[in-house]
Amino acid sequence: MKILLLEDDYNYKESIKELLLSLGYEVDDFLSGDEAMEAAFHNSYDLLLLDIRVPGIDGYGIVKEVRSYGLKVPVIFITSLTDVNNLSLGYELGCNDYIRKPFSLKELKYRVEEAIRSYHFHSVSPQVQLPCGFIFEINSGILRHEDHEIALSDKERRVIRLLVKNLDTFMDVDTIREYAWEGKEVGDNDIRMVIKKIRSKTSKEFIQSQRGVGYKIAKE
């Protein structure tokens, strides 16, 4: 899963990034609100972890913008503010949680995991049971079958992650292209080839397809 991290305190940013990477997340980190907002609109993220007081547009402004365009990615604010009015503003704009400085990395770990589970998977389990006896580990993006890890390329992992996030719902090729290739120009044949490789490593029934509609992974 991919997280956008905005924190203008370099030491905080590096500590948080190191933790998230150790937990298996992909991380894009920024010191400036303007750079973070541009990234939020040009990439697909599973969580926005935003400091409020930063150079350029602040954390509130970023959430206001992404929500105005219908982006529903979960948001956690990092803040040293204790004013109730500021907390209310964040929730009114659509944040999911706050974490106040100073905080322990253990607390951050739990808050990040809970935000992702609640929003994307609606489950307390860090693993998702899939058809044909496969298990997908949410945090690490590892696919297993009978305790055996399936070797996946980055694109294969991204496609599976998208389909797992939308179990039993067909995803069209444009959505898959936007998520797995981050909007880069690739042909439908490239997408079909990745699907074919995933099936060859799992089973023909692992990913279902419907002509003109798209692809899905069914619920177990």
Compact overview of the structure:
The protein is α/β, with parallel strands linked by helices.
What does this structure look like?
- With 220 residues, the chain is α/β, with parallel strands linked by helices.
- The protein has a five-stranded parallel β-sheet with strand order 2-1-3-4-5, sandwiched between helices. Strands 6-7-8-9 form a four-stranded antiparallel β-sheet, covered by helices on one side.
- The mean pLDDT is 86.
- 43% of the residues lie in helices and 20% in strands.
- Strand 6 and strand 7 form a beta hairpin.
- The radius of gyration is 18 Å and the shape is globular.
- It has helices at 10-22, 33-42, 59-68, 84-93, 105-121, 154-165, 173-180, 188-201; strands spanning 2-6, 26-30, 47-51, 75-79, 97-100, 127-129, 134-137, 143-145, 148-150, 208-210, 214-216.
Protein topology:
Layout: E1 2-6, H1 10-22, E2 26-30, H2 33-42, E3 47-51, H3 59-68, E4 75-79, H4 84-93, E5 97-100, H5 105-121, E6 127-129, E7 134-137, E8 143-145, E9 148-150, H6 154-165, H7 173-180, H8 188-201, E10 208-210, E11 214-216
Parallel strand pairs: 1-2, 1-3, 3-4, 4-5
Antiparallel strand pairs: 6-7, 7-8, 8-9, 10-11
